Amino acid sequence: MPNVQRKQGKVILHLDMNSFFASVEQSYSPELKGIPMAVAGNPKERRGILVTCSYEARALGIYTTMSVGEAKRICPELVIVPPDHEKYRIASNAVFSILRTYTELVEPVSIDEAYIDITDIGGLTDAVRIAENMQQRILHELDLPCSIGIAPNKFLAKTASDMKKPMGITILRKRQVPHLLWPLPVIEMHGIGQSTQKRLNELGITTIGELAQAEELTIKIKLGKNGLRLQKRANGIDNRPVDPEAAEERKSVGSSTTLVIDETELEPCLETFRFLAKKVAKRLDAKGLAGQVVMIQIRTSDWRNFTRSRTLVNPVYKEEEIYEEAINLFKLHWEGDPVRLLGITVSNVIPVNELHEQLSMYNFEKYAKEEKMDKLVSELEKKFGSQSIKRGLSER
Fold first, then answer.
1. Which of these is catalytic: 113, 263, 319, 321?
2. Is residue 390 part of a domain?
3. Residue 126 is labelled as binding a ligand
């Protein structure tokens, strides 16, 4: 009888750093270890928002996005430190460098998490040993804790890494999905937020199992292609490969255009920036990204190129924010030379769901209202066309 070799299934790890910003601060300042501590945008402002907190703080009921004042009421001795993003970037790069000593198939998806395809360097047989080795190296070499999920695809690996924190290693097999995931509320599923939960609830779908077993047509009508993707994942199906290049593609999003004539008037240039900001915002939205650097490109009629940029405190992804930053840069730096080409690029991007703004309670409410308005405008444009809604601009 011929020897038929079985095709080996994929083995994907999802590595998730535990309370990353807080852990980095603790590694730099050991006196912060073992005590309730948090990182907040403005430690002296009681309305400041916690970006992350230690597990000692979490045990007391303190959590990310809680205000400093509220956290202090729960734990008066809570130690709060300001964020140091350069410190976190250095630590993140060090973590990813360790992962790449095992395989080049490493896909960072944010500053503190990555997917790793270990199919060809040990597969399921050596998965736990490899995961333990990674976890211990990161702990001993960088003094940083992490949790790792092991599964046949990205979705299940991500789900598994959330199951045991801190310093957990969890295997999640596709056959376990009905038993472990289906009884859970849909909001517990990675990729489903409150808006999607509400739309599913309107269909009578409240658990992951009900989503998995729902009629495909019903899901497609209500949620479109994204709904069908979520339904597949509810059944443990996810065919996305680990793509090392994806992280590079996520570093910046931009658009440029050559003008019909060499322009010397301000207003037509501003109209062009409006067009570009809309395109860049749509691309950021499609990828679920926000960026901290806004850069404009200007090419003059004699083919001289120059760029100007601004680094922002809070990352942006909305059309209006991008437009305002771009035209402010243009007004500041354009000297009236005839313009042949204009461009906008948003870089230093991160996933929007990782975005932690340093907001007061007052402008947090403002942003929440803007978010509702953006969703309404988006729905109307989908129904009546992209030019059906015109935003009003206040005179200054």
1. 113
2. no
3. no
